Amino acid sequence: MDDGYDVVIAGAGPAGAQCARDLAARDYDVVVLETESEDEFPRQSNKSTGGTFPP
Q1: Residue 48: helix, strand or coil by DSSP?
Q2: Is the pTM of this model over 0.70?
Q3: What is the pLDDT along the chain (55 residues), one digit of tens a residue?
Q4: Which is nearest to 15 in space by CA: 34, 38, 37, 29?
Q5: CA–CA separation, 52 vs 32, rounded Å?
Protein backbone atom coordinates (compact mmCIF):
# COMPACT_ATOMS: atom_id res chain seq x y z
CA MET A 1 0.00 0.00 0.00
CA ASP A 2 1.32 3.43 -0.99
CA ASP A 3 0.60 6.24 1.48
CA GLY A 4 1.69 8.98 -0.94
CA TYR A 5 -0.19 11.17 -3.35
CA ASP A 6 0.64 12.38 -6.83
CA VAL A 7 -0.82 15.83 -6.13
CA VAL A 8 -1.58 17.85 -2.99
CA ILE A 9 -4.01 20.75 -3.45
CA ALA A 10 -4.25 23.52 -0.86
CA GLY A 11 -7.81 24.80 -0.60
CA ALA A 12 -11.16 23.26 -1.46
CA GLY A 13 -12.63 26.36 -3.04
CA PRO A 14 -13.99 26.28 -6.59
CA ALA A 15 -10.54 26.28 -8.24
CA GLY A 16 -9.02 23.69 -5.91
CA ALA A 17 -12.04 21.41 -6.12
CA GLN A 18 -12.18 21.62 -9.91
CA CYS A 19 -8.45 20.97 -10.18
CA ALA A 20 -8.78 17.92 -7.93
CA ARG A 21 -11.70 16.63 -9.95
CA ASP A 22 -9.87 17.05 -13.27
CA LEU A 23 -6.69 15.39 -12.01
CA ALA A 24 -8.58 12.50 -10.40
CA ALA A 25 -10.37 11.93 -13.72
CA ARG A 26 -6.90 11.53 -15.24
CA ASP A 27 -6.03 8.85 -12.66
CA TYR A 28 -3.86 11.02 -10.40
CA ASP A 29 -3.96 10.21 -6.69
CA VAL A 30 -5.11 13.56 -5.23
CA VAL A 31 -5.57 14.94 -1.72
CA VAL A 32 -7.20 18.31 -0.97
CA LEU A 33 -6.26 20.15 2.22
CA GLU A 34 -8.80 22.61 3.64
CA THR A 35 -8.58 24.63 6.87
CA GLU A 36 -12.32 25.19 7.31
CA SER A 37 -14.35 22.54 9.08
CA GLU A 38 -16.98 20.68 7.07
CA ASP A 39 -19.68 22.41 9.12
CA GLU A 40 -18.50 25.84 7.89
CA PHE A 41 -17.64 24.87 4.31
CA PRO A 42 -18.45 26.06 1.75
CA ARG A 43 -18.55 29.70 2.68
CA GLN A 44 -21.36 31.80 1.31
CA SER A 45 -20.26 33.13 -2.04
CA ASN A 46 -21.72 34.79 -5.09
CA LYS A 47 -18.97 33.34 -7.26
CA SER A 48 -20.06 30.87 -9.90
CA THR A 49 -18.77 27.32 -9.87
CA GLY A 50 -19.65 26.87 -13.51
CA GLY A 51 -22.07 24.04 -12.73
CA THR A 52 -19.34 21.92 -11.16
CA PHE A 53 -21.18 21.52 -7.87
CA PRO A 54 -24.89 20.87 -8.28
CA PRO A 55 -27.15 22.13 -5.48
Answers
A1: coil
A2: no
A3: 567 999 999 988 888 888 999 999 999 999 999 887 766 665 555 455 555 555 5
A4: 34
A5: 16
